[in-house]
Amino acid sequence: MKSKKRDGVSIWWFLVPSIVLLILIIISPVGLSQKGPDFLDLSTEGSARIGDSIGGITAPFVGVLAVLATFWAFWAQYEYNKRQYKYMVKEQFDHAFYEMLSIHENITDSLRLEVIEQVSTNGSLTNQREEVVKTGRSVFRFMYEEMTVYEDEMVGKYTFANKKQYVGLKGLFEGHQNPYPIYENNHNVSGLDHYFRQLYSTIKMIKENDDFDFTTKYYYTSILRSTLSQYELIMLYHNCLSSNGKERFKPLIEEFAILNNIREDLLASTAQLDEYKDTAYNLNR
């Protein structure tokens, strides 16, 4: 609104003097041609050159008026072009941004994890096992809360029975002093690489847009953040504390408060909250 007001004021600065000047040009010949005192009487035959006189008097004013009108026209065109450019930049960015959101959603929906679970009958587990497929956002919750995590890297699809196991990544983060190498080498976690890369690319695109101020950038990252479930935020939180995202992704998380809605009660430990700057959780902190 302020910019529009400034534009309006700038137009009147040219328009008002132009109107006043035009009125003076129109009425001055009438006034100068009227009979008056001898020394001002321009109505006699001796004043036949009144037209030339008036032309000589008014020509500079007409010239100045033409310059002002031309300048005003160029200024109006300049302001219009500036507004059009901003509109086009935003329209192009919106198209790219929502296309990236659509890709992110497609990647999330395409996540698939095949697991073997014990069959439950009447609330009790049996010795029977069945293959269950986790898809979409349910993959994040399963990996964090239920998936069996082995302390040693798996060889193909097989592990040794005497290896230490944890219930979910949450159990790993709770029970191991140095969990991130195990997290990084887990083959199921590696299946999320394209998910995190695409998420990083979207936030980076917003960050590197020089036509937007921080408030606008924060607006777009807030839209992106609103699409993330609680378990996606938890997995993002841990991914950016690992070597996978600590160097490049974590600073973006801190700059745009991506963890603003994270549920601390779901974390294995709140001690790691200090690993992030306060702005990762709230820009006002």
Q: What is the rounded Rg?
A: 36 Å
Arithmetic mean of pLDDT? 80
Helix content: 55-70%
- The low-pLDDT segments are 1-9
Strand line-up across the major sheet: 1-2
Tell me the count of domains: 2
Overview of this protein structure:
It contains 10 helices and 4 strands. It is 57% helix and 10% strand. It is mostly helical and 285 residues long. The protein folds into 2 domains: 2-84; 111-285, no CATH class. The protein has helices spanning 2-32, 50-110, 138-145, 168-175, 180-185, 187-190, 193-207, 214-226, 230-239, 249-255, and strands at 112-121, 124-135, 148-150, 165-167. Residues 1-9 have low confidence and may be disordered. It starts with a helix and ends in a 30-residue tail after the last helix. The strands form 2 sheets. It has a two-stranded antiparallel ribbon. A hairpin with a 2-residue loop joins strand 1 and strand 2. The longest helix is centred in the first third of the chain and has 61 residues, at 50-110. 15% of the residues are buried.
List the helices and strands and how they pair.
Elements: H1 2-32, H2 50-110, E1 112-121, E2 124-135, H3 138-145, E3 148-150, E4 165-167, H4 168-175, H5 180-185, H6 187-190, H7 193-207, H8 214-226, H9 230-239, H10 249-255
Antiparallel strand pairs: 1-2, 3-4
